Amino acid sequence: MGIIGIEKETLKTMIQENVKTLYRKTLETALPEEIYQAAVFSLRDFITDKWIKTHETYYKEDVKAVYYLSMEFLMGRFFGNALINMGMDQVVKEVFAELGIDFNTVEDAEPDPGLGNGGLGRLAACFLDSLATLELPAYGCGIRYHYGIFEQKLENGYQVEAPDNWLEDGDPWGIRRNEYAVEIKFGGHVRAVPKENGGYRFVQEGYQSVMAIPYDYPVIGFGNNTVNTLRLWDARAKNRIDLKSFNEGNYQKAAEEETLAKTLTDVLYPADEHYQGKELRLRQQYFFISATVQRVVERFTNDHDDFNLLPEKVAFQLNDTHPSIAVAELMRVLVDENDLPWEQAWEITKKVCAYTNHTIMTEALEKWPLDLFSRLLPRIYQIIEEINRRFCVELMEECGNNPEKIRRLAIIADGQIRMAYMAIVGSHSVNGVAALHTEILKNHELKDFYKLFPERFNNKTNGITQRRWLLHANAQLAELITERIGDGWITDLSQLERILPLVEEEAFRERFMEIKQANKMSLAKYIKSAKGIDINPDSIFDIQVKRLHEYKRQLLNVLHIIGLYNRLKMNPGLDMVPRTFIFGAKAAAGYHRAKLIIKLINSVAEVVNHDQSIGGKIKVVFLENYRVSLAERLIPAADVSEQISTAGKEASGTGNMKFMLNGALTIGTMDGANVEIFEEVGEENIFIFGMSADEVQEKYNKEYDPWSVYNMNQEVRMAMTALIDGTFDRDTGLFRELYDALLNGFGGSRADEYFILEDYADYDRAQQAVDYAYRDKEKWAKMAICNVAKSGKFSSDRTIKQYATEIWNLPTVPIDF
């Protein structure tokens, strides 16, 4: 029996009946994806009872709810996670076994929806899991992209993008809610209509519009009765077809609205190197924000007529700058549609909205050209102009007539709307996502705003959900921990500290390392199957998986591999522990240099893996199409976690936490949450290298000549030469751009912009320390166990509790069932 009380025989019957009803097949003839869908529909019956009860309770008790607004929700596969949170995983596995069905095959048949780019979207998914587990009323709000982040394929070592068609075989988890459809308006013009009180009402006319249709997905709390909602908005034409134009033979015009709607939600993050891409991305942002705001306010007005109560019932959390247009849209709905005076609406808006900043790099703070914005969203542009005008008046009162400072802080300046600035001005809370990140925001990137609004700035170090990243991804390790300390850690990760004394127990260390070895052998088998590469399960599995970006420094990793390869070529008998370097990364479709680094990694792999003279001491593997389900294979098998960004560039990182939780040791810079991991585990259980954030800043401010590193370090010189001497590109000059970017600057970038050459020697020192430490099996086991034991701080449950108490003022609401 599972905790929701499904009898095994009942479940068997339901699955068989659903296979028959949905596909006109029996279990013997059904495909794995058909059995998967039949199983989901069987479970959904029971989930939906709790789902209805949850929302009935929220309405009845008139509770405050948080709406987590995000362009990305990288949820991963739903099925396995839902089973664990419902306490049904063992029951369903037994049911499948008794029916003669391989559970793993069925689980693998579920598509892995790529509705996010990386850490931002995965963080949002972890937060939703924690919100439901902590019994907090919450909605995730985003877009139901028809195609997620592209499916990455490799052709001759190059990244090629293919559509991620996750909806191809249906969407068994999503429930379409036509009754909550809302109209979203683009373009046209704004007319001022006089009101009786002497003011004006602003009306948008001559616009194009689409209908936003919500699809609701269940977010199941662990071990409780809460089922919250992920609401993803899809677009549909207001009028499916213009029959008059069609009958006149003008077929293109007849389908214009349909095409606009379809394009709007087709693809996650359209390439925005061109104007049309920028316009589509802005349309997407306004589309899901306007739909959410309109629906939330409509629901509020069903039960309340005093808008001053809105902040007591609603919190909007803006996940980065993409949803920051919510500030202006809420003002529009309050002022234009509900006749609130500007001043009252503004106070309400600031109390409702809170902003999370996820980036240190100024160029990543979103800005929109005025001509594009004002043409596409004329009324929203007027509102932002007025917000900016009033803010500039406040600045003059605060700072005197200082045009330069006002220009520096204005929301509209230099022909652009600066969305991060609007989010700060229009929110009551601005948070960073790691202690170092927040300090950099306060003291550097946003220091002028911090001086203006010091009370708004706070830190909320990111976290991950242990339910997916240990209980689901690493079942054997989860079982060992539960055997020794009980299962309280599943909802209170700080309890992992109780395994710390077990580091002195030989039997526990051996079992821990046996599990790691089993995970490594499983991954080796997968790599052989997927790539045809034989890897040594006794080698150090050194893994770097994350988005491909120059500041994350995959190039430092591969340059060091080249250095190590050169060392082995000169001395094949070199005393070293065999090492398997594993990469997974997608580069943005238009990011040329990132794609060139992927090609370099694959070219290095091709040479190194086929060179018999080095005796298999190093292997290099690039696993294409990195995604949540692949991360669940990789992370439990890792010995070493590469977190090597240029200090001061990574806001937090969450991959570092997942690896730590699964007993991998971090080699990294003092950047993002690495700083806090270092504080938790101590310097003896982590491999830190490289310049600090302050030293990096100092280096930027001074003259830095990478040629001096090149001339002084023979290994660097030889590795750099290998980029251009034909070793990896058969004399085509393919990697000359990377060589030039590091030594001379290229395409407008400064030479060695991310200090790869500067940090190389210290990185190599840390890598040699890894090699030395791994030889002492007992010491390594103790270090790995210590990392697991000290990972309690990095649960998203802890992060969400802080958001709930310090930003949202959101009480728990238990659901009786």
UniProtKB/TrEMBL annotation:
Keywords: Carbohydrate metabolism, Glycosyltransferase, Pyridoxal phosphate, Transferase
Catalysed conversion reaction: [(1->4)-alpha-D-glucosyl](n) + phosphate = [(1->4)-alpha-D-glucosyl](n-1) + alpha-D-glucose 1-phosphate
N6-(pyridoxal phosphate)lysine found at: 658
GO biological process, one term: glycogen catabolic process
Keyword Cell inner membrane attached: no
InterPro entries: Glycg_phsphrylas, Glyco_trans_35, Pyridoxal_P_attach_site
Name of the protein this chain belongs to: Alpha-1,4 glucan phosphorylase
